[in-house]
TrEMBL record:
Keywords for this protein: NADP, Oxidoreductase
Similarity annotation: Belongs to the short-chain dehydrogenases/reductases (SDR) family.
Keyword Oxidoreductase attached: yes
Keyword Oxidoreductase: yes
GO molecular function terms noted in the UniProt entry: oxidoreductase activity, acting on the CH-OH group of donors, NAD or NADP as acceptor
Protein name: Short-chain dehydrogenase
Source organism: Terriglobus roseus
Organism phylogeny: Bacteria, Pseudomonadati, Acidobacteriota, Terriglobia, Terriglobales
PANTHER family: (+)-NEOMENTHOL DEHYDROGENASE, SHORT-CHAIN DEHYDROGENASE_REDUCTASE
Domain of life: Bacteria
């Protein structure tokens, strides 16, 4: 009897890293739910992928979409094996503490942190039903306090308070959720994609989306001996 395909949900997946993660998971035999706030864009993206891929409406600015999506998944599959919290944003009026626009910081946190909490809470009951649930929070090296405090770090001059702080907060969520779930099979980790060529940075990144997806896919497909409560890029652990 063939093993039942695992169910994976990737938010913000109609382009960039989310799309590539969806492609790679589908290639590995996962049933992929491609989360998109614009369903038409999601459908166009899903149509280009091979494997069992379908679109599900999730907008981090509208918590009711996550609640509705969780009901759909519950009714159709009864379980969610992988949740990749990929959706996120930046605001170009963000900057260092002395000049950043406070409204920009709030907007970034609403999506990158508060929105991600809401998505995770909506789907966590389904992930806990999995025999090997995996949650991957897509963070950034810019969320590392250690790296931000290192003047020799190649990105030390990038001081965008809202974005960096939102990813540091997301890392704290990873640590605390992993601790909460320590007695379960669920593993929770943060992934730093690295500086990747995407719309988010106006295609300034030096990595391909395939390279930027490596750590995320690896954490999404961990075996039972894999880590939990950690922070990783494609080369290994990242300092908090």
């Amino acid at each position: 009897m063939a093993e039942k395909a695992k169910i994976a949900l990737v938010t913000g997946a109609n382009k960039g890293i989310g799309y590539e993660v969806s492609r790679q998971l589908a290639e590995k035999g996962y049933t992929v739910l491609l989360g998109a706030r614009d369903v038409k864009l999601g459908e166009a993206a899903a149509a280009k992928l091979q494997g069992n891929v379908s679109v599900i409406h999730i907008d981090l600015a509208s918590p009711e979409t996550s609640t509705a999506a969780a009901r759909q998944i519950e009714e159709k599959y009864g379980v969610l094996d992988v949740l990749v919290n990929n959706a996120g944003m930046i605001d170009w009026t963000d900057g260092p503490p002395s000049t950043t626009k406070v409204d920009a910081v709030r907007k970034i946190f609403d999506t990158n942190f508060f929105g991600t909490i809401e998505v995770t809470q909506a789907f966590l009951p389904l992930v806990k039903k999995s025999s090997a649930g995996r949650i991957v929070n897509v963070s950034s090296g810019l969320g590392s306090l250690a790296q931000n405090g290192d003047t020799a770090w190649p990105f030390a001059e990038v001081k965008a308070l809202g974005y960096c702080s939102s990813k540091a907060a997301l890392n704290m969520m990873t640590v605390q959720l992993a601790y909460e779930l320590r007695a379960t099979p669920v593993k929770v980790n943060s992934a730093d994609p690295g500086y990747t060529d995407t719309d988010l940075n106006n295609h300034g990144g030096h990595q391909t989306v395939a390279e930027g997806s490596e750590a995320i896919v690896r954490l999404a497909t961990l075996d039972e001996n894999g880590p939990t409560g950690g922070y990783f890029d494609r080369n290994g652990r990242v300092p908090w």
